[in-house]
Specification:
The complex is a heterotrimer of chains A (about 260), B (about 350) and C (about 325). Chain A has about 260 residues and is an alpha/beta fold. Chain A has helices at about 45-50, 80-85, 100-110, 120-130, 135-140, 150-165, 180-195, 205-215, 235-240, 245-255; strands at about 5-15, 15-25, 30-35, 60-70, 70, 85-90, 170-175, 200-205, 215-220, 230-235. In chain A, a hairpin with a 2-residue loop joins strand 1 (about 5-15) and strand 2. Chain C has a single domain (about 1-10, about 30-335), classed as MetI-like (MetI-like fold). Classes of the chains: A alpha/beta (about 260), B mainly alpha (about 350), C mainly alpha (about 325). Chains in contact: A-B, A-C, B-C.
């Protein structure tokens, strides 16, 4: 159910602007990897190259390789739609489909993939909502609009929607930045449970959060003003927060960074 | 990208069958060839039919091939894409034909003589004559309509944005919206019933102006309102804080700031009513002679001239030529107004705080 | 065009505080200048309401004059005879023709307009989309009499082939049979009206589709949706009410269009069984064609039919506006 990601020599552009340059890393299956770094250093851009969402942005372009269990996402003949089916994503702001009910939101991805039978759908929807720790809160209002839930519930609904299609990898782009502390805690607990089944990559601005939820942490930084973002180092989270090998990482973590 | 048809696709594979990039073009080319062949073979004369057959073949062919190679979902996606393109092409053809026909047929008799002479002494079926009287009439009628509609429209917008609250403002807002949709012939009938049948004022350019003004007002209100709303609140407060009375603030600060946008809106509304034919037909009546006085006796007008040249000529080529030339004149006038208005809007946009 | 779409812009919801700040202090003393200015601007607003009311009152007054002397039933009579008394006239034929031509126009224009709007917002190469949208904006400004002239002299001759083909393939339905007359029928009117209202429906729909929040589209993409599935899941549901109101605005235009119908149709005062055979008429076309020869009484009768048209367009446009207003509240709450 979860796959390993090998990135090598990845560079991404917005039109003529180079956003990130020459990034290589390995992400092990069934781990949580956190991306940290200052704003604009390209962490989110890099995350979006992992399921080919970057090229959806006008002018977005990618060079390099991303291997998912050895198969290159950017290889010839690869269908980006199939990639996104295997690499799910949760966004910064909760984005349930406003015109759909709670049930239909979770079932949306399944219906795309041809699951039609009502009983199959209900089973998977229940399983996914339970997996997202949301079932008990919404089981009585599955037919109510998804947009009517609280922010934290909406975000867990989006997670349920993402895991319903059983992806190999789950990408999370600052999933808690729009949530209050209690909802944040709920989502963080959930991440801890989900890593049993999925490879998880999470972008966060919150260093405590990175320390709490992740096994490995990658630090990104700008090479300079107007220069592309780079991967400074990636290591076990414990090491990064106690004894990083690069001075810039330590400066950033200890708050000595501009 | 050019290796299609890998059909055995294991579950969870990233690589499905992918059609090459030139596939859509190939389908279109093939469809056109086949459609022409069918058209010639079956003796269909209309190119419209050829086009329809080609479009059907292209959409159907895309689905058949894509469903086989890429699967049903991708096939549906491709069909949707080709349908959207077909929609676009279907719409472009008549619109392009309209512009082309007007240009090609309009230039035949459109020259200096045409623009500076009236139809006095020229029978509808004879060649010669011109649109001077109609051009003059249109300019006077639209000018008068503007003089009536712009103050009312701008003041109403000022009321809605600066003072408006409560039931009256809501009612005005709603009815301005509804008024935008009044058919021009109804506006004409209203002025007819009120000005001509009840007040017995007789047909004149001014009666037409009244109807055109009714059609202009809601457009002016709407566009002015939008522009006034863009004026930053800080600007008003800064002026009020200096002790400037509200009415002077509106006149000296708010309106000048949004002047560019208001002028744009007014020009677009002028462009809209210039082409109105129905109210002019009912109220101005039309004439072949130059009548420079819009307040008494029938006048001519450009759109009305087009209609009468078309309708009263029993198919005479000379009249049709004049109709096309007048249509080209009218379109040129309207388009220039539009382009200039949009130019002003773009030029003055930064000062409105956008 | 711009004016009719701009107030769905979320930015317009920001005006409430503007207004609050700009209000005069109701309890304070008003300067004479302020009083005059307020009076003038409020007067202008009231004048607009008075005009609307006057339109209704005067049309009704003249219509009553005519209908009271109508020897037939105003709603069901299949005749328009106002030259000699006793006059006999009714709007049945006109109502039928107006309805049929507008329905044909909507059936053709709405899907195509939605397709073009999608093309411009989601399919066309960006470099192409901008200029095309601009051109469509300009086309909305082409006067209807020019559409009429083009329809009569260019479109009509091109439709013979299509009519013959429709007759061969679908003639058995009766509705689409053709006796070979010039194709100046209600179907042609519908086609021409469709072409005329295409720009406005396209423009409003495009505006709505452009406002679909990026995050909803990305949500669908991230689930592995194809482009069409993104459109179905995120774009169309969000834009539905906008497209409905755009269509109603287009319908309002089609119902009231005068000159294009008057130039293209060969009117008769009866109802043809087939859409392809020339004949029939619409409210606006009938007024324009009969006006020149009408007596004062005949003009009153035409005004009566115009009143019916006025009420119909009022209802259609009012409904469109209500939908738009409700929608902007909805999207404002989620902005």
């Amino acid at each position: 159910m979860s796959k390993r990601i090998d990135v090598s020599g990845l560079t991404a552009y917005y039109g003529a602007h180079k956003a990130i340059e020459d990034i290589s890393m390995t992400i092990e299956p069934r781990t949580v990897t956190a991306f940290i770094g200052p704003s604009g250093c390209g962490k989110s851009t890099f995350l979006r190259t992992l399921n080919r969402m970057h090229e959806v942005t006008p002018g977005g372009r990618v060079e390099g390789k991303v291997l998912l269990d050895g198969e290159d996402l950017y290889g010839p003949g690869v269908d980006p739609v199939a990639v996104r089916r295997q690499v799910g994503m949760v966004f910064q702001r909760p984005n349930p489909f406003p015109t759909m009910s709670v049930f239909d939101n979770v079932a949306a991805g399944l219906r795309l993939n041809g699951v039609r039978k009502k009983s199959d759908l209900s089973d998977i929807v229940e399983k996914s909502l339970k997996g997202a720790n949301l079932w008990n809160e919404v089981k009585d209002r599955l037919d109510k609009p998804g947009a009517g839930l609280s922010g934290g519930q909406q975000q867990r609904l989006c997670i349920a929607r993402a895991i319903a299609v059983e992806p190999e990898v789950l990408l999370m782009d600052e999933p808690c930045s729009a949530l209050d502390p209690i909802s944040t805690l709920a989502v963080e607990d959930l991440i801890g449970e989900l890593k049993e089944r999925f490879t998880i990559v999470i972008v966060t601005h919150n260093m405590q959060q990175a320390a709490r939820v992740s096994d490995r942490t990658a630090f990104f930084n700008l090479a300079g003003v107007g220069r592309p973002g780079r991967l400074i180092e990636i290591d076990d989270t414990e090491r990064i927060f106690s004894n990083p090998s690069v001075q810039a990482t330590e400066d950033y973590i200890s708050g000595r960074f501009g | 990208m050019t290796t299609p048809a890998v059909t055995d696709r294991p579950a969870g594979a990233l690589r499905g069958g992918r059609l090459p990039r030139w596939f859509p073009l190939a389908v279109v080319a093939a469809s056109i060839v086949v459609a022409v062949a069918i058209g010639l073979g079956a003796g269909l004369h209309s190119t419209v039919q050829w086009g329809l057959i080609a479009a059907l073949l292209a959409v159907g062919g895309t689905y058949a091939v894509a469903a086989r190679v890429e699967g049903r979902r991708q096939a549906r996606d491709r069909v949707a894409t080709s349908l959207v393109w077909v929609c676009f092409l279907v719409a472009v053809i008549p619109l392009a034909s309209l512009i082309w026909a007007t240009l090609r047929r309009g230039v035949k008799v459109l020259d200096g003589y045409f623009l500076t002479h009236s139809m006095a002494g020229v029978a509808d079926t004879e060649p010669g004559g011109g649109v001077y009287h109609a051009l003059l009439g249109t300019l006077e009628q639209v000018g008068l309509a503007t003089v009536i509609a712009v103050p009312v429209g701008v003041l109403t917008a000022v009321y809605l944005v600066e003072y408006g609250r409560g039931g009256l403002a809501r009612a005005v807002t709603f009815f301005v919206d509804v008024m935008t949709g009044i058919p021009s012939i109804v506006a004409g009938l209203f002025v007819l019933s009120f000005w001509i049948l009840i007040l017995k004022m007789g047909y004149s350019g001014f009666a037409g102006s009244l109807a055109l003004a009714i059609l202009m007002m809601p457009v002016v209100v709407r566009s002015t309102e939008e522009m006034l709303k863009l004026v930053p609140r800080e600007l008003r407060e800064a002026s009020l804080a200096l002790g400037v009375p509200k009415w002077r603030t509106i006149l000296k600060v708010v309106l000048p700031t949004s002047l560019g946008g208001i002028v744009t809106g007014v020009m677009l509304s002028i462009a809209r009513v210039t082409g109105e034919t129905a109210p002019v037909l009912l109220l101005v009546w039309g004439t072949n002679f130059i009548n420079a006085n819009p307040f008494s006796d029938p006048q001519a007008s450009l759109p009305l001239f087009i209609y009468q040249q078309y309708a009263n000529s029993a198919g005479a080529g000379a009249a049709y030529d004049r109709a096309w030339a007048a249509a080209l004149t009218l379109i040129a006038f309207v388009m220039i107004l539009n382009l200039v208005a949009r130019g002003i809007a773009r030029f003055t946009a930064p000062t409105t705080g956008r | 065009m711009q004016t009719s779409t701009q107030h769905t812009d979320p930015a317009s919801t920001l005006t409430a505080p503007d207004r609050a700040a700009a209000r005069p202090d109701a309890r304070g003393v008003m300067r004479p200048g302020d009083r005059v200015f307020l009076g003038l601007s409020r007067g202008a607003g009231i004048l607009l309401l008075v005009i609307m009311a006057a339109i209704a009152v005067f049309l009704t007054y003249r219509a009553v004059l005519a209908i009271s002397k109508d020897d037939g039933n105003f709603l069901t009579t299949f005749e328009w005879n106002t030259g000699v008394l006793p006059a006999k006239f009714g709007i049945a034929v006109l109502a039928f023709g107006t309805l049929v031509s507008s329905v044909v126009a909507m059936a053709l224009a709405v899907p195509v307009a939605v397709g073009i709007a999608l093309f411009l917002t989601h399919y066309a190469p960006r470099r192409l989309a901008g200029p095309i949208a601009y051109v469509i904006d300009l086309l909305a400004a082409v006067p209807s009499i020019v559409y009429g002239l083009w329809g009569a002299l260019v479109l009509v001759p091109h439709l013979n082939g299509l009519y013959g083909w429709l007759d061969t393939v679908l003639g058995w339905t009766g509705v689409l049979s053709w006796q070979g007359g010039a194709p100046r029928s209600l179907l042609t009117v519908g086609i021409l009206l469709a072409i005329m209202i295409l720009p406005i429906i396209t423009n409003v729909s495009r505006e709505v589709f452009r406002q679909v929040p990026r995050m909803h589209e990305e949500a669908a993409l991230a689930l592995g949706a194809t482009r069409w599935e993104v459109v179905r899941m995120a774009v169309l549901p969000f834009g539905r009410s906008g497209v409905i109101s755009a269509s109603m605005l287009g319908l309002g235009r089609a119902l009231g269009e005068t000159m294009a119908v008057a130039t293209v149709l060969s009117p008769t005062f009866d109802i043809q069984a087939s859409l392809l055979d020339p004949g029939g008429g619409t409210f606006a076309q009938n007024i324009a064609s009969k006006f020149n020869e009408a007596t004062e009484f005949g003009q009153d009768a035409l005004i009566a039919s115009g009143l019916v048209l006025f009420v119909i367009t009022l209802l259609v446009n009012g409904a469109a506006r209500l939908i738009i207003n409700r929608r902007s509240e909805y999207s404002g709450a989620h902005a």
